[in-house]
Write a structure and sequence with these properties.
The protein has about 220 residues and is of the alpha+beta class. Helices cover about 45% and strands about 10% of the residues.
Length: about 220
């Protein structure tokens, strides 16, 4: 039986050990490097909020995908999310392989380095001690302008300031793997509640008016 693609629920709620196993199983069958790298970016977003440690997720595996020259995501912005997986010498070699010219590299670097200087510590933070479990509930708009919800359970509440939280969740709009019937699931971030435990969210969020944030958008 073919291995099923990793689902949103698995990427954002499965334990690290089980998720690592699923990564290896799926790649062994499909050899789809681009898909695995996008999944790893999604796990970095999860790590930013999680009470559990998902930092440097599948580091050796991801390194091997880049260093062996496998097919990588077309969106070159995503490469910068893994800069810290490599030594300076390795990164210089990869830059020559991944970008057509130094000028192209600098164009992408100028888009990403300042943002990741701020967001990077969240993407690679370790575990956190928390008093109670909470769930992040983020509201997106999909490619058909319909509402789409992202939930991340077992988060550390208020660990990410609201302005940084919006930028972190905006990363989801870079990922092409989340689609349903050909429609992108996370086309635009609308609103995120990070202060509610699940039980409170179900009661308090119902009927809330969405608020739109104007976020910078990076294109491949």
């Amino acid at each position: 039986m073919p291995t099923k693609p990793l689902e949103q629920r698995q990427l954002f709620n499965t334990s690290r050990e089980k998720l690592e196993q699923r990564f290896l199983e799926y790649y062994q069958e499909t050899q789809d490097s681009a898909y695995m790298i996008e999944c790893a970016v999604a796990v970095q977003v999860r790590n930013a909020y999680s009470r559990d440690d998902f930092s440097f997720f599948m580091k050796d595996f991801i390194r091997s995908l880049f260093l062996t020259g496998k097919k990588l995501p077309e969106n070159r912005n995503l490469y910068f999310f893994f800069r810290d997986y490599f030594t300076e010498e390795e990164w210089r070699t990869l830059v020559k392989q991944l970008f057509e010219s130094p000028e192209e590299y600098l164009t992408y670097a100028s888009k990403n380095q300042a943002t990741l200087k701020t967001l990077g510590p969240y993407l690679s933070s370790g575990s956190r001690e928390v008093e109670e479990d909470a769930t992040l509930v983020a509201q997106f708009e999909d490619g058909a302008k319909k509402p789409k919800i992202l939930k991340i359970r077992r988060i550390a509440r208020q660990v990410v300031p609201p302005a940084h939280s919006r930028d972190l969740l905006h990363i989801m709009t870079y990922l092409s793997i989340f689609q349903r019937n050909g429609v992108t699931c996370f086309a635009k971030i609308i609103k995120a509640h990070t202060d509610y435990v699940v039980e409170r969210y179900r009661e308090d969020y119902r009927g809330a008016e969405p608020k739109t944030y104007n976020l910078p958008k990076l294109t491949p």
